[in-house]
Amino acid sequence: MLAKGYVQVYTGNGKGKTTAAIGLAIRALGAGLRVFLLQFMKSKVYSEHDILPGISPNLTLETMGKPYFIVEEGSVPDEELAKWNDEVVVFPAGKPPADYVEIVQKGLQRAREAVSSGAYDLVILDEIVVALHFGLITWEQLREIITSKLDTVELVLTGRGATPQLLEAADLVTTMQESKHYYSLGVEARKGIEC
Fold first, then answer.
1. How would you write the pLDDT of the chain (195 residues) with one tens digit per residue?
2. CATH 3.40.50.300 fits 7-63+96-179, yes or no
3. CA pair distance 103, 107, nearest whole angstrom
4. Domain residue extents for the chain
5. For a tag site, which of 14, 21, 144, 167 has the least CB within 10 Å?
């Protein structure tokens, strides 16, 4: 158990937010801490799902997503959307798909339980910042999770597009800044590196 838990936010357009959170989870597990990793807007297609469930009985890993990603209309260039084929659903501003909202709301309930139950020392809400950005959750809902967190629980929130309110509420903010990326050369996500 931690003597004091803080709120960390990993945000920005650069690569490495989820990777950093998973690295922290591994470190925490090595120290005997109990970890809850809840991934929003992801399904079990990422390589970490092949290894993490078996590394420690102190790790609980859950996903709250669909086998497709969503983006708000106009937020991603058409040439980028074309690369995603059927793996993305574009929605009009302020009207995200109801099934996505429903599953993310279930995730919020799990997150509230995790931060307030005393069952975990480290709670990671991966991509919850993106869920906030796309309007799948409200700032009030996320603030409730932050304020209901037990004082001994470390809470990590990841995803692009952190709001000023979230940045203010956090104790630690790391912004991943993209300086150069091989995606611009047409390199697709590679298994074991990006997915």
1. 899 999 999 999 888 999 999 999 999 999 999 999 999 977 666 668 787 888 999 999 999 887 777 888 888 788 777 777 777 888 888 888 888 899 999 999 999 999 999 999 999 999 999 999 888 999 999 999 999 999 999 999 999 999 999 999 999 999 998 777 776 666 677 677 666
2. yes
3. 6
4. 7-63+96-179
5. 167
